[in-house]
Design goal:
The chain is an all-alpha fold. It is built from 10 helices and no strands.
């Protein structure tokens, strides 16, 4: 119940409290460890509104992230989850090539994982690598017909690629489709 409630909460502190409850019941719950790591990842991301909201120093939050992501990797029951968790770990550690390779391999096996595509899009924001830009654009373009979040991601990546005309056209279409 704590795990399910944590997915619906709005603050990092609430989420951590509920996830702590879930982990007290089942410490080998890798998805809960992963969500804890994500709270800490957001705490150390300066561009996020959640950054620093839990009152920890960046160093403390980074240590908490590393503990949680290590626990998630150790308790994961399959290689795909471990690969995703390692990709996030590599992204936070700024091992961008490793993160890119791990996410590409993960998405080849689990192509419908929106959250992983969102992480890959974040990575593209940092690297601006043409091949990954094109890969992310193609994915979001294919799915944006059905999902407004994919349209938003497509517009963002098209803007990075400096295809502003395409970004504006897709943004206009998305606004008409989902007012």
């Amino acid at each position: 119940e704590g795990f399910l409630s944590a997915n619906e909460t709005q603050t990092g502190a609430e989420m951590l409290a509920l996830l702590d409850e879930a982990l007290k019941l089942e410490n080998s719950f890798s998805a809960a460890h992963y969500l804890v790591s994500d709270v800490w990842r957001l705490q150390i991301t300066p561009s996020r509104p959640e950054s620093g909201a839990l009152g920890k120093t960046t160093h403390e939050a980074l240590n908490s992230f590393h503990k949680a992501i290590s626990d998630a990797i150790q308790t994961a029951s399959n290689n795909e989850d471990k690969q995703l968790y390692r990709a996030v770990q590599a992204l936070v550690d700024m091992r961008l090539r490793d993160s890119t390779a791990l996410l590409q391999e993960y998405l080849a096996v689990r192509p419908n994982d929106f959250y992983a595509w969102r992480l890959f899009t974040d990575l593209v924001w940092i690297t601006h690598e043409p091949v990954t830009l094109d890969q992310v654009l193609a994915h979001h373009k294919q799915r944006m017909v059905f999902e407004p979040l994919n349209a938003t991601e497509y517009v963002n990546v098209a803007f990075i690629k400096e295809d502003k005309r395409e970004a504006v056209e897709v943004a206009r279409e998305a606004i008409q489709r989902w007012p």
